Amino acid sequence: MTVSQEYVEYIIEKLETCLDVEKARFFGGVGIKHNNLQFAMIMGSTFYLCVNDATREKYVSMDSEPFSYLTKKGRIFVRKYYAVPEDIIEDQDTLSLWCHEALDAALKGKT
Questions:
Q1: What would you report as the CA-atom Rg of the chain, rounded to the nearest whole angstrom?
Q2: What is residue 32's DSSP assignment?
């Protein structure tokens, strides 16, 4: 899966207005971390945030899809990460809120 460097920089710019973030290679994409905790990723041209049971429904209600990949046995769905709708990416205040929720979900998922 090819990741557009231009898209990665666009997302990083958006995130840096509300968080200190680092990016790192993550399988075929880019993992995004805050204080060494991965809470987001970019695969292809899709930006995903970490979710949990408390936040997942918000993504589902906006017709967001979980991250998935294809194997010889079929499609695997990773319900820990959901795609962020474009209108959320464009709304800086809402994006900040969703990123902080994703950080909380990632932190709670580590324990």
A1: 13
A2: E
Residues 6+ apart with CB under 8 A from 16: none
Query: In this structure, what are the phi and psi dihedrals at residue 109, rounded to the nearest 5 degrees?
Result: -75, -20
Q: pTM value? A: 0.91
**Among 31, 100, 108, 80, which Cα is nearest to 22's?**
31
Residue 110 binned pLDDT confidence (cut-offs 50, 70, 90): low
Among 46, 44, 66, 45, smallest CA distance to 55 is for 66
User: CA 8 to CA 4: how far, in whole Å?
Assistant: 6
Q: Evaluate whether 40 touches 48 at the Cβ level (below 8 Å).
A: yes
Burial class for 84, CB neighbours closer than 10 Å (0-12, 13-18, 19+): buried
* Domains delineated in the chain: 5-110 (3.30.1460.30)
